[in-house]
Amino acid sequence: MEKYRLSSEEWLVTQLLFLASSDERQSEPLLKYYTADGLDQKPLREMLLSLQEKGILTKEYKIPAPGKKFDPEAVIFNKNFLKDKLKFSLDLAQDLIDHYPPYSGQFQLNNITKYYRDYEEFGKAYGKIIRWNAQKHDEIIELLEWGKENDRINYGICEFIGSKKWEQLERERRDGFEGEMCIIEAL
Fold first, then answer.
1. Is 5 exposed, middle or buried (0-12, 13-18, 19+ CB in 10 A)?
2. Cβ partners under 8 Å of residue 39, min gap 6
3. Which of 36, 37, 53, 133 is deepest in the core (most CB within 10 A)?
């Protein structure tokens, strides 16, 4: 994704636009970002022009004139950008599969076909859940490794991502889980 040379604000707005697109229909975060007080946001029209110039949005997408209504569901993402985003999701998903323990006793834990039609659907779901955030993915892998070391992974990979089990692992690690018991600190 580095090839697009996005600023941090452009990256954020791209993620918000993606959430607000016709596929996701979650426009509230974008609205909150642009109506928040105290932030020094680039004007939306200026941002859309910049994203179009960088190849995130297609040239065929008609950016509304100043004062005209903006419909986030009308935004048209560049097919190459979407392909790169999918590839990024699939790379992250493959990394998760590579780190996930294959078996717990006699049960296979890394089988994705129980919940997802194929690997691409699994990758898209994982990318969406972590909002295509590589840093979040790295944190999840770190928690997964901790969970394996402490014998805490006893559920399949689909449950792990669908239920965000890494949040449970994070609580256990923070609260001092050791072996078969949690250490409860005195109040």
1. exposed
2. 33
3. 133
